[in-house]
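ok so for the tutorial part 2 we go from a plain amino acid sequence to predicted structure tokens. step 1 is just haveing the sequence, like this:
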Amino acid sequence: MLCTNCGKELKDGAKFCSGCGNVVQAAPPPVQEYVQPQAPPAQGYAPPPQQGYAPPPVQGYAPPLQQGYAPSPQGYAPPPAQGYAPPPKNNNRTLLIIVIAAVAAFVVILLVTKGFGAWGEKEEPVDVIEEVIEEPEPEPEPEPEPEPEPVAGAYDEIYSFYEGRAVVSRDGKWGYIDKSGNVVIELKYDEARSCMPDGLAKVGLNGKYGFIDKEDNVIVELKYDEIYSFAEDRAVVMIGEKNGFIDREGNEITEIIYDEVFAFSENELAVVMLDDKWGHIDKAGNVVIELKYDEVKSFHKGIAPALEAGGRWGFIDMTGEMVIEPKYDDAGNFTYADVTWVYIGEKGGFIDTNGEKVTELKYDKAQAFSEDGTGLARVMIDEKWGYINLAGEEVAELKYDEARPAREGMGAVRLGGKWGFVDIEGNEAVPLKYDGVDDFSEGWAAVWLGGKVGYVDKEGKEVLPLQYDGYSSCQEGFIVVMMGDKWGMIDKSGDFLVEPKYSDFRSFREGIAGVSFNGEKWGFIDTSGTEIVPVS
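step 2 — the prediction. this is what the tokens look like for a chain of 536 residues:
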């Protein structure tokens, strides 16, 4: 739950705000926002690995053997005439012819056996070596990355985008989508919260809570009955009715033994209570301020309010020494300024960190200085409100029937039935003529009169005419407005970027907004009006 005065996240059941000291009132549930899906990103295609190719070994080529031609050693003789018998030859000559013929035959056989090169030249024999090429082992194909779950359309409930993720719900189960509308964490949890700046998110399953990261890795085991956001790298956890602290790795830095705790402050100390006694521990879980006080508040500017057993509030330093006398009936801490409120009896005023009075204790109501750093605090006497500055000067006369905490240096005030704004000098920069006003955001504030809404700047100029039927604060340069009974979106020129056609429209965050046609099913659009997640 949140403090209605300063907006600080509080533990359920807290009686007062640890940030500003305001009495805690129940805060409305957080607005949820959603993102419109886009088509899932195309999966990169990789062709199958090429198998190395080796051509078959080339066989040496030899031309067909030419048959050697040897002229006959015998001279040419015409065919013998019929009936004529030549005279008998000499036997030695016959033997010579036989020898020559045998040699010639041997040469022919040799040539046939050994072969000839081109044009009868003999080729050297070629030894053909067949090279054995070992084909490489085929590389295993990489496992394809899991494709994101396709965008399925409208959700039952949504939260705003934080850290590029939005929480969505369907059929009672919660998960996360990215800015393309792809489901990046399955809808499987019974409860889920938006990502924190460190990328961690609280999730719940079967009544137990823990933290996951953006990839759904469990960082803190889901074993706690309740768990709260990290502050100064420490988070509050509960088992049963007892509280303790964990670090970002899920290590329990304290035993889960305390009856009540508050988050770590800027001075790296946390408030703890055990058996109705309060004190402080450090980030290692060591008790540094003894648990002996009836109540204490968080450290800011090096000091913290502490209530002694005698029933008076004073201020202690980080060693536990009382540095401002315990004489007050109530006291705030120095959250946003070096000045804070204190009460004695029914009257309140302001002191500085040395305990010196900044104002007399004369106010019926003295509220904390605003967190915007402009140094305005609300005060009230006899039901009339005004503002003081850090010097204790009443810069806006105590004449208003109502005053709100200043935002962007502008305080919304009401006199009679009309609203306007005062600036840090107390000037009525926006005339008190409107039926209602919203707080300033990005330099503009919504105002309404006679049932129509427009927008003013800090000089009181109506920068958008009073013509709309519903409004939202300016976020990221965009404004969600209603025309008739439908919502759309305009820019600061008043031009419609998204025509009014939705029954419900959440403010933009990280360039994306949740929309619905019937308030039951939600989708997301971007700033051009393109549906990232279909509404139906």
